[in-house]
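tokens incoming
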């Protein structure tokens, strides 16, 4: 069984964080949960205190790349095979991580795998995500693309070892 660390960067996420964390803890595939908080000033930190997660609190809003790098750098020398980066407003279907891992094991040449992202109700493909699909090459059982937002990425440790971490000069991606 492959070992996965799920990493969530938060910033004033009280509106979404309970639903996000509940979806992760219901997953059919277990992952260890890590969260880096970008100096939230709302109730985010109080809302997560009952969840089984490891927390790193920053004393400034460092942005997406920097905050993910905090967790990734700490975990790179661990025994994790994959890192699942998700945004605080992402809600997972119970089997999404299991499906991503199965796909990753079949296609080890792919360093980053993203699920198709739906709107907040799960009814339609997210409008922004449709743009990535249009720019992608359709294969038999997946789309190959040069860009996909990082709302939900499964990244292999081998990929990170090869390409490195996020550029921290960019606040988002």
């Amino acid at each position: 069984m492959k070992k996965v660390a799920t990493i969530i960067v938060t910033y004033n996420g009280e509106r979404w964080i309970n639903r996000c964390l509940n979806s992760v803890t219901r997953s059919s595939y277990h992952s260890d949960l890590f969260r880096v908080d970008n100096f939230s000033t709302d109730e985010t930190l109080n809302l997560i205190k009952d969840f089984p997660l490891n927390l790193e609190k920053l004393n400034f809003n460092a942005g997406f790349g920097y905050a993910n790098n905090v967790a990734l750098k700490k975990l790179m020398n661990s025994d994790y095979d994959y890192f699942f980066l998700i945004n605080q407003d992402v809600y997972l279907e119970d089997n999404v991580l299991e499906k991503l891992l199965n796909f990753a094991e079949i296609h080890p040449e792919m360093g980053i795998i993203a699920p198709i992202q739906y709107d907040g109700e799960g009814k339609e493909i997210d409008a922004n995500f449709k743009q990535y699909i249009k720019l992608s090459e359709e294969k038999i059982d997946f789309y190959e693309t040069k860009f996909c937002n990082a709302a939900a990425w499964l990244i292999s440790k081998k990929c990170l070892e090869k390409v490195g971490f996020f550029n921290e000069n960019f606040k988002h991606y």
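note: The first strand starts at residue 4 and ends at 10.
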